[in-house]
Structure formats: structure tokens, C-alpha cells
From TrEMBL, chain A:
InterPro entries, sorted: Spore_V_R, SpoVR-like_C, SpoVR_N
Positions of region (Disordered): 193-212
Domain SpoVR-like C-terminal: 564-615
PANTHER family (alphabetical): STAGE V SPORULATION PROTEIN R
Domain SpoVR protein-like N-terminal, first and last residues per copy: 25-361
Organism: Saliphagus infecundisoli
Pfam families with a match to the protein in the record: SpoVR, SpoVR_C
This protein's name: SpoVR family protein
UniProtKB/TrEMBL annotation, chain B:
The species this protein was found in: Saliphagus infecundisoli
InterPro entries attached to this UniProt entry: UPF0229
Leader peptide range in chain numbering: none
Biased composition (Acidic residues): 80-90
Compositional bias per record (Low complexity), positions renumbered to this chain: 63-74
Sequence segments annotated as region (Disordered): 51-96
Superkingdom of origin: Archaea
Name listed for the protein in its UniProt record: YeaH/YhbH family protein
């Protein structure tokens, strides 16, 4: 984690009453931080602010910040947010931004129980921001590793406001330019470390410029030029040149590419001219913001689930809410988790619990397999899982800690107990009833909250499959270390689940997270299904309830922000400085209308004609008619397509297959349609 | 702060891109609007981006499902950023531009060039208006001091005079107080004889300083009173009891502009889907328009075949019955229901729609007399025959023959396709005459 980096004071809640951490919340904030750290979280420092309903909606519209550049999109989000609040009861409890320190905004109208829940939730988010590697991609490129988000966004806001106020620059032009840029906000290389400038070694230099101009610069006299470097010579030299094609590798960071090589189309001149300084500057700013927000978009499920998991553990597990507040809290959770659909909170939380449970189970199974006479073949026969589970129950002294049970606590293994705190408790300096966790270490808390004995996961251990047993058992050495189950469990690492969670939270994003941890049990239990469009019926139908298919469709939604992958294939297409993009086709076609509209915007950033090669599936109307009568799907044919916009006209033409074959991926398939499905 | 501007810009952007109102009425999705809020789809307000084709993409849903079962309205997907995605809708995301009925009415006025001016009817209350009326007594707090000051100033202006000059006049040789007074009066100086006598006595010694008033006038400029005030300040303004006025609120008679709209629809067997839809397309904007125009709008929905019965708005456009058609049954019911809305207090609109089929002689013998008996701002009949005239469907024709094309309070409109809807609405709303009661 990086050092706290103070925000410049002007970005700091000037607009909000400096009512941060109102009296009631001072203690919960402090305790939540202590508890979070005991649990192994390493959150950025968090500043808490209390805001009213309107301010909350404003903050949400601005993506959790107080100042953003002027743009109508914020107005749109704000409008939507307000209306949801009015009609849908979509209540916002908090918003926290990814910054160091983080700023969390709590809604004034929350009950105390809500506020406490929100604080625990926020602490977990702040941990995720600080420790997930994908967030590190934005900060990693910088020496001091600081986020500096609020300051950056505010700087951008000021700069753009200045451009808009500049009498030399047309305000509407600035707004349009931002619009053009934003159409590409998801076309970045979000898996790379962010750097302000993308080095472009492969861009051709020197000779591609007009040779005549070069000669002018040499200051050769007109006579000499006429004799030696005549027009014919120039043409010959220029003609000889190999058409320089770049980039060498397809470039996914479209924003960087147009920033380096783009021009703007000048209506009056009727040709491409260099971008103005402010235009490049706007491009740079929008690109930096796109990279900054990318990590949040890539880890929505993980991050919300992470926060929901720790919130629940602190609130319910450690009674962070008082008894009277608990009902409110339960109500709040029911609202958040039960909002239906595939909500990121409940999907994420359940996946995290799965990570924890499987790691814990693996630890237990490994221990059991090391008992003499137990092997993966016979484990389920010789081991009594009920007995094992009873042994996994935390000792009474740990499960219920009170002022009277301090001495029992002292009997427990040292690693579980925070000795200093215990002494303090004995001296009456710690309110043991309210904060029992203060007496425990990370290991102690892991023991106390061991997942496999939680009521909802009681069956999890026994459900271990033979496959899994084999997988673990086959590679296990030293497999006769213990004489009995009791002995084996005595050495058990109860923090295995949490440790695994911390590893996962560091390295995964939503795609890898869902791919690795979404199980068929999960899909079946929650009644998930995949659906597809039927050409024959003209509507959407359930295509599969199979976990693998559901996962396929889910991954499609998470991969690359749920958007198709587009890359620059040539910045000098046809040796005419045209731009050629390629859509890396994974079986799911482009929305052609949207692609055409986007190309029109891109033209403004390139200044010269823009092209896009893609693959589209086509069905013959006659085939659809036939298929409909026979109750089956018509055959679909994949064809190459080239979209082109030259500043005036958008054209879509068939492209020969050899021009697009390199774009088609044959190792992915997102289609879940069964052979016969509309019987 | 900035967000307010952003919101305004969004509205401007949305305004520019929302569907043309006339087009919306004829072809748009009226169903997503509510009676108090008209929602007009805005064509792709958000910026374009490279995106998957929705059909190709498919999705994930939750619920008890069988393979092959159609999926109605799948929920938003987790990757979708909470944005509504409706796979059944090829056009993709629709943002909505929302307007309240007032705005709708205003826009429609502009679009169709209407100028329906709603009339106030019932005197609902006598409210206290602004404190603009005056009385001579009242509590101190309502004393109109400003007025009193002005009156005092006026009085001062009227009574003040150039004392110095008049004193000089008294010094003219041989002049008597009477002569001074007479001269002053001749000059309209508001001076009393007593004052002149006093001043005359005071300058006894200096008398003879001037040979004549003419000489004096040539020597010394008289100073107008305004100049004096400007020079010396206002000084003392005489407040008089008679200038005291106390403000008290004006009594404003408020006439509420209220309207009752009776929607009548033929629901008999011949009114098939297409006809029903056209009636809905015509009636719904009329309802919105009148809601927007009047302070209070009440709606009565009557469905009829051979008999008539009152229904709720939700049911109104959906009902279909089997029986024959007797339009007068609806007007009989309307007459009864309208008793609750006395013509003296309510603006009334009676809109009926159907395919002009009626039982024999019902139109001439029953409907027309009823229409004439029910006082209303406007009676309208909307005929819808998308597939051409049926031979015995002559209700509209008979009405037109009887009332004439230019009747002030009867409108007949024909809607045979979506493209006729706005014309019909114009025909109806521009018919209402100015005559009232």
C-alpha cells in the first residue's frame, strides 16, 4: 500500500458541511477501522462525509467525486438517479471513491444501523481499491504509487472549463470533441499499466512526410532543385517507398492511437489538419479518466461482493450493529441482496463464500488424507463428517466472549489471542461485551468465524466430490503423518479460507473470478438460465440451464466491459493514411448501426476516412420463412463486412473472407443454442 | 454548481433528439406514459460505442425456466451498468423525454397551431389576494408608510414656497400686505395672509429697497421649490392623519378551470384490434391535452354495445364484447353521469368513437336529440374504418348531415389509419366555439 497522499484542500468537501464523522459516527468509524485491520484488511485511509439526498445524487452522477468537467452525460445520470429515487425507491446508502485517501459519502437519512453497515462496507471497498492488482495498473505507472484521483479529476474539470471559456475556442466545439472522445472510452488497453503517453516506435517517421517540404527546409536554391531534384525525381523516390504500415501489432488502445497519429477534419479547408493543442489535451484527459475508471468496471462483482462479505461478517458476525439496530440492518441487507436479477452484491458475495469454503474444505481434506489409513478412495467411507464438523466448531470460550470468560480465553492457543488487549480487558480498559474482537488476533478471528460450521454451509464439507478428493489426494505426499482425525485437525490452519480470499482479491478480475468460482451448484440453486434470440420466432427464448452455458453468457458480459474487442490494424490503410480497425470476432456480431455511428465520431478524431472490418452473420429471408414452418433455426452464414466512413457517406460492403479470416477466433464460442429448442 | 448546467445541457440534447410530437402520437409507444406524465422516447440520446448486436449476444436470466420457453422482458444484466436492456426492442436503449400534460398541451398547440382557451367556470373560492386595497384604519403593521410619505411630500411641494423671495416682495416701496398677498395668489404661491402680514411687519425698515416688483424680478431669480429641496434636502415632511392608509388584501374571485371529459367507445364485435388501437391513439392525446389545459380534469369512460356501462380507464381500451350496437345507450348514460358535473360549473367534452355502425334509426331518433340536450363545449365523434366504409355504417354521416360541417360544438373526425390521427385531433380541438353558456 502506498503512503497517504493528502488532497489539496480545495478538493476537500468545501461544498459539504464539514460535518464529516458526526458525533454518533466517530466511534463506529474508529472501531470499524480497527476491526477491519484485525480481519486482515488493509484499507486506504477513508474520510467520511455526510451528505443529503441531492448531494448524494450529484455525487453518484459524478462517479463519486465532487468536481467533474462540464458534460451533459452527468446531467443524464443525475436525472435518471433522481427518478429512480422518486419512483423506484432505488435508495443510495453510500458512495465511496477510489482514492488515497478514499472519500466516502454517507446519506444523511440513513439510520444509525445503516451508517454502521455502510462504514464496514466502505472499509472493505477501500481495501479492495488499495490491494487489487487491476487498480494497481493505474497507479503502477507512477513513481510514488499514489492515486490522486480527486485532484486529477478536478484538474481536468478546471482545464476543460478554461477551454470552454476561452474566447478563441468555440464552446460547442469543446463539447463535441469530448463527445467524440467518449465514444471510445472503452476502447483502451485496460490490461496494461497506464502511462500518460504511449510510446510509438512503430510509427513511421521522416520520409512519409512530403518530400518536397523536406527539400524546402534544406534551403537548396531553386536552380539546383530544378536540375537535380526535379518533380520526376521526387515522384520516383516517393513511389519507390514501401507503403509504411503500422502499428506492427494490432493496437487496442484506440484513444492513444488517435492521440498520437490522429488529425482533425477541418470543414473549411476540406482536409485533415493537425489537432489543436486543446484537442490533444482533452484526448489525454479523457484517456486518463478511462484508465482510472477501468479497474472499477472490471471488478464490479468482486468488489461489491467483497464489501458485502466483510460488511456481513462485521455486522452480523461481530455484532457491529447493536441489538436494537440489528433489525434495521437485516432489513437493509434484505433490500440490497434481494434486489433480484443478477445483482453484483449477492452474486459476488456468494462467489466469495464459495472461495472461502472450498479453500477451507481443501485444508480439511488434506489433513484427513494425511491420517493413516485414509486415502482419497476410501475417505468418505472411513471418515465421519459429522464428527469432523463437531471438532471444527470453535471452542465455547472463543465463540462467546464476555467479561466473565476472560480466563477461559487465556487458556486458548496464544496465536489466537491478543495478549496486550487481554491484559487491558482484565484491567477493565476494554468494553469486552461490545468489542469482544479486540481480544483476538487474525488467527483467532478466523477460528471464531470458521465458515464450514456456519449453519448455511454445514453440508459443504460432506458434499465434496470424488473428483475433488482424487485431485487433492493424488498429489499429496507425506500422507500418513497423523494417527487420528483428532490429531490431524489439531494442526489445521483455520485461516486457510481467508488467506485464499486475500490472494484472490489481489490478482483476479470479474472475468477470471466468475470463470474460476461460478459452479454448477450455484447456477442450479439460483435458477440461472441463458437465453438466445430465435430467428424463427423473432423473439428471445431460454437456451440453456446448464452451468457451463450460463457461465459462457456471463463471461461475455464481463469480458472487455461487455463490449466487442476492436483494434487498430493499420494507420496507413491503402497507403492513403486511412484508418483500418478490425473487430476481433468471437462469434457475436457487432451492432452495425452503433458501429456506423461510432465510425462517424472516430472520423472526427482521425480527420481522414475510417474503416472497420468485421464479420456478420446473415440469414436469408427465405430460409427464415422455411425454418419458421419447420420449427427450427435457419442456417446462418458468416460474411466479411467492411464499414467505411469518409466524412460524407457511410458504406457497408461485403469483404472477401481472406480479408477477415484473421479476425475470427475459433477457440471461443458464446452460442448456447441447442440443436432442437423450439419444439 | 456544474451539475445543474449539465442537467440543462442534457435536456437540450434530449429535446433536440426526441421524437417529433406528431409522429409520436401517430406511431409512438403511448403505453409507457402515465396519465400525469407523457413519456416520449428519445432516439439514442447516449453516445454511440462499439457494441454487440443484442440478438447475437443473448444473455442470462433468473427464474424457473424450461429450454425453449420465450423470455419476455429479461432483467438488466450485471455488466450493463444498470441500464435497461430490452432484448425485444431492436432499436436498443430508449431514453425517455418526459413532459407533464401542461407541456404536452403547449407543444401540441405549437405543433398543430391550436389555441384552445380554457374557460373558468365555478367560483371556487374568494381568496385573499395581495395587500393592495386600502382602508383608513387598520393595524400599524399594515400602514402604508410609503404612501403616507409620498402624500406628505406632495403636500410639502404644494405648500412650500420661496419664502425669501416673498420677503423681498414685502420690501417693495409702498406695498401693502394686501397687495403682496394678491400678487402671491396671482402667482399661485400657497401663502396665507397672516404670513404676509407678519413678514411685511418684519421688513418695515427695509421697505423701499426695490422700486417695483418688476425691478425685483429682474434682480433676483426665484428659486423653484424643487430646486430648494434638492439644495437643502427634504427637511421636514409633514405627516397628516388624513394621509394614513392601511393596506388590506384584495379579494380575488378565483374561477377554476375544470373540465370533465366523457370518453365513449363502441366495444361491440365489429370493433376489431386495429380500430381499437386507432381510437386509443386519438383519445389518449386528447385526454393528455385537456388535462394539461385545465386546472382539474375528470374523466368518465363509457363502453357500449347495445347497452352502455361505465368502466375504468385501465379497462377502457381493452374491452371487447359481442353484442350489437346502440350508440344512444351511451349518451343516455352520459347524460345521467354528467348530472354530477353541472354545466354551470364544468367545462364538458363528450367524445365518442366507433365504426359508425348503429342500430337502425337510433342515430336520428335518439342520439342526435340527446347530443342536443347535453350541453357541452364540444361533442365529437371519431369514426374509424380502417378497411373502408361499411354500407350501413352511417352514424358519422348522419351526424354531419344534421349538424353541418361547420358546427361550433360538434366535430366529426375520420381516422382510418395512424396517419389520420393528428388531423383528427386537430379537427376536434379546433372546433370548439367561443360561445359559452
Amino acid at each position: 500500500m502506498s503512503d497517504p497522499h493528502p488532497l489539496s484542500s480545495s478538493t476537500n468537501g468545501d461544498r459539504f458541511r464539514k460535518q464529516a464523522i458526526a458525533g454518533d459516527l466517530e466511534a463506529p468509524v474508529e472501531h470499524a477501522r480497527q476491526l477491519a485491520e484485525k480481519l486482515g484488511l488493509e484499507p486506504y485511509p477513508v474520510n467520511y462525509w455526510i451528505v443529503d439526498y441531492d448531494e448524494m445524487n450529484e455525487l453518484i452522477a459524478y462517479g463519486g467525486f465532487q468536481t467533474r468537467y462540464p458534460h451533459w452525460r452527468w446531467g443524464m445520470t443525475y436525472d435518471k438517479q433522481r427518478k429512480q429515487g422518486q419512483y423506484g425507491g432505488g435508495k443510495a446508502f453510500e458512495i465511496v471513491n477510489n482514492d488515497n485517501p478514499s472519500h466516502a459519502f454517507l446519506q444523511e437519512s440513513n439510520t444509525v444501523a445503516d451508517q454502521k453497515a455502510v462504514i464496514t462496507h466502505v472499509e472493505a471497498h477501500a481495501d479492495f481499491f488499495g490491494n487489487n492488482d487491476w487498480f494497481g495498473l493505474f497507479t503502477g505507472g507512477r513513481a510514488d504509487d499514489s492515486v490522486d484521483a480527486a485532484a486529477m479529476l478536478e484538474r481536468h474539470a478546471r482545464t476543460i472549463e478554461e477551454y470552454m471559456a476561452d474566447p478563441e475556442i468555440d464552446r460547442a466545439e469543446v463539447e463535441k470533441w469530448i463527445d467524440h472522445t467518449l465514444t471510445l472510452e472503452d476502447n483502451i488497453d485496460q490490461h496494461q499499466v497506464f502511462s500518460r503517453r504511449r510510446e510509438s516506435e512503430d510509427a513511421p517517421t521522416g520520409l512519409d512526410d512530403d518530400l518536397g517540404e523536406k527539400l524546402d527546409e534544406l534551403g537548396i536554391s531553386a536552380e539546383v532543385r530544378g536540375e537535380v531534384f526535379d518533380e520526376e525525381w521526387i515522384e520516383r523516390i516517393e513511389g519507390d517507398e514501401e507503403a509504411p504500415s503500422f502499428p506492427a501489432e494490432p493496437e487496442r488502445d484506440l484513444l492513444a492511437f488517435v492521440r498520437e497519429h490522429g488529425k482533425r477534419y477541418d470543414e473549411d479547408a476540406g482536409k485533415a489538419v493537425e489537432m489543436a493543442e486543446w484537442q490533444r489535451d482533452v484526448l489525454d484527459m479523457m484517456r486518463a479518466e478511462a484508465y482510472y475508471f477501468a479497474a472499477q468496471k472490471m471488478t464490479k462483482i468482486m468488489n461489491e461482493g467483497w464489501a458485502a462479505y466483510w460488511e456481513s461478517l462485521m455486522m452480523t458476525g461481530e455484532a457491529f450493529a447493536g441489538d436494537d439496530e440489528f433489525v434495521d440492518y437485516a432489513d437493509h441487507m434484505a433490500k440490497v441482496l434481494g434486489s433480484g436479477g443478477l445483482n453484483p452484491y449477492s452474486l459476488g458475495k456468494q462467489l466469495w463464500e464459495y472461495v472461502e469454503n472450498t479453500a477451507n474444505r481443501r485444508e480439511v481434506i488434506e489433513a484427513l488424507l494425511r491420517v493413516e489409513g485414509v486415502s482419497w478412495r476410501n475417505l468418505t467411507d472411513v471418515v465421519d463428517f459429522d464428527d469432523v464438523r463437531d471438532r471444527l466448531e470453535p471452542p465455547e470460550a472463543l465463540a462467546s466472549i464476555s467479561g466473565d470468560s476472560l480466563e477461559d480465553l487465556a487458556e486458548l492457543p496464544e496465536t489466537w489471542i491478543d495478549g496486550e488487549a487481554l491484559d487491558a480487558a482484565r484491567a477493565g480498559e476494554i468494553d469486552v461485551e461490545a468489542y469482544p474482537w479486540k481480544l483476538l488476533t487474525y488467527e483467532g478471528l478466523a477460528r471464531r468465524h470458521y465458515s464450514l460450521v456456519e449453519p448455511q454451509f454445514r453440508g459443504f464439507l460432506a458434499e465434496v466430490s470424488q473428483d475433488e478428493l482424487e485431485r487433492i489426494g493424488r498429489y499429496l505426499f507425506d500422507d500418513a503423518r497423523y494417527g487420528s482425525v483428532e490429531e490431524a485437525l489439531a494442526d489445521l490452519d483455520y485461516a486457510a479460507g481467508w488467506n485464499r480470499m486475500y490472494d484472490v482479491r489481489e490478482s483476479h478480475n470479474d472475468v477470471t473470478f466468475v470463470d474460476e468460482f461460478l459452479t454448477s451448484e450455484f447456477v442450479a440453486e439460483n435458477d440461472y438460465f441463458a437465453y438466445e434470440y430465435s430467428e424463427a420466432s423473432g423473439g428471445f427464448h431460454v437456451s440453456s440451464t446448464d452451468a457451463a452455458d450460463v457461465k459462457k453468457k456471463l463471461l461475455l458480459q464481463f469480458t472487455n466491459f461487455g463490449k466487442p474487442t476492436i483494434a487498430v490494424y493499420d494507420g496507413n490503410y491503402g497507403n492513403a493514411n486511412e484508418l483500418l480497425l478490425g473487430h476481433q470476432y468471437n462469434g457475436v456480431g457487432l451492432d452495425m448501426d452503433a458501429a456506423g455511428e461510432t465510425l462517424k465520431r472516430l472520423f472526427e478524431l482521425w480527420g481522414r476516412p475510417v474503416n472497420l472490418l468485421t464479420i456478420a452473420t446473415e440469414v436469408d429471408d427465405h430460409d427464415v420463412e422455411v425454418a419458421r414452418r419447420r420449427n427450427r433455426e435457419p442456417d446462418r452464414e458468416e460474411r466479411g463486412k467492411r464499414l467505411r466512413y469518409d466524412g460524407e457517406e457511410l458504406t457497408v460492403e461485403d469483404a472477401p473472407w481472406e480479408d477477415v479470416s484473421h479476425l475470427a477466433a475459433d477457440d471461443v464460442d458464446y452460442d448456447t443454442k441447442p440443436e432442437e429448442w423450439l419444439a | 454548481m456544474g451539475l445543474r448546467e449539465d442537467l440543462e445541457r442534457f435536456r437540450e440534447v434530449g429535446e433536440a433528439r426526441r421524437e417529433d410530437l406528431a409522429e409520436f402520437i401517430s406511431y409512438g409507444d403511448l403505453g409507457s406514459s402515465r396519465p400525469d406524465e407523457v413519456r416520449i422516447p428519445v432516439k439514442i440520446v447516449d453516445l454511440p460505442a462499439f457494441e454487440y448486436d443484442r440478438r447475437d449476444r443473448g444473455g442470462v436470466g433468473q427464474g424457473d425456466a424450461e429450454v425453449g420457453q420465450p423470455v419476455g422482458q429479461p432483467r438488466p444484466q450485471p455488466g450493463d451498468d444498470g441500464e435497461e436492456s430490452d432484448p425485444g426492442d431492436e432499436g436498443g436503449d430508449h431514453e425517455y423525454y418526459e413532459m407533464d400534460p401542461e407541456e404536452f398541451a403547449q407543444e401540441l398547440d405549437e405543433e398543430l397551431g391550436l389555441d384552445l382557451d380554457p374557460k373558468g367556470k365555478t367560483v371556487v373560492e374568494e381568496t385573499e389576494g395581495p395587500f393592495t386595497d386600502m382602508t383608513r384604519s387598520g393595524p400599524d403593521s399594515t400602514l402604508d408608510f410609503e404612501r403616507m410619505f409620498k402624500e406628505g411630500l406632495k403636500r410639502k411641494l404644494a405648500t412650500d414656497f420661496d419664502e425669501e423671495f416673498l420677503r423681498e416682495v414685502c420690501k417693495v416701496s409702498g406695498i401693502t400686505p394686501r397687495e403682496v398677498f394678491e400678487w402671491a395668489r396671482g402667482e399661485s404661491l400657497p401663502v396665507s395672509f397672516a404670513w404676509v402680514e407678519e413678514a411685511h411687519a418684519e421688513v418695515e425698515d427695509e421697505r423701499g429697497a426695490w422700486g417695483s416688483i418688476e425691478e425685483l424680478e429682474a434682480e433676483i431669480d426665484r428659486e423653484p421649490i424643487q430646486a430648494k429641496i434638492r439644495r437643502e434636502g427634504i427637511g421636514h415632511v409633514p405627516f397628516r392623519r388624513e394621509d394614513e392608509r392601511y393596506r388590506y388584501p384584495e379579494i380575488v374571485e378565483e374561477r377554476e378551470k375544470n373540465v370533465v371529459v366523457v370518453n365513449i367507445r363502441d366495444v361491440s364485435g365489429s370493433m376489431r384490434e386495429k380500430k381499437r388501437e386507432l381510437v386509443e391513439r386519438t383519445f389518449t392525446p386528447l385526454d393528455w391535452y385537456l388535462t394539461g389545459k385545465y386546472d382539474t380534469a375528470e374523466f368518465v369512460y363509457i363502453a357500449h354495445d347495445a347497452d352502455a356501462w361505465q368502466v375504468s380507464r385501465e379497462e377502457f381500451f381493452g374491452i371487447r364484447s359481442g353484442g350489437g350496437t346502440r350508440i344512444s345507450s351511451a349518451y343516455e348514460l352520459a347524460a345521467t353521469l354528467l348530472e354530477e358535473y353541472p354545466w354551470s360549473d364544468w367545462n364538458r367534452y363528450v367524445f365518442a368513437a366507433g365504426d359508425s355502425e348503429n342500430s337502425s334509426n337510433d342515430t336520428g331518433e335518439r342520439v342526435i336529440p340527446l347530443m342536443e340536450e347535453i350541453p357541452a363545449n364540444l361533442h365529437a365523434y371519431v369514426e374509424t374504418q380502417p378497411s373502408g366504409n361499411a354500407i350501413n355504417a352511417t352514424h358519422a354521416e348522419e351526424l354531419e348531415r344534421h349538424f353541418g360541417r361547420d358546427a361550433e360544438d360538434v366535430a366529426i373526425a375520420y381516422v382510418n389509419g395512424a396517419e389520420d390521427v393528428t388531423d383528427a385531433i386537430y379537427e376536434i380541438l379546433s372546433t370548439e366555439g367561443d360561445s359559452d353558456e
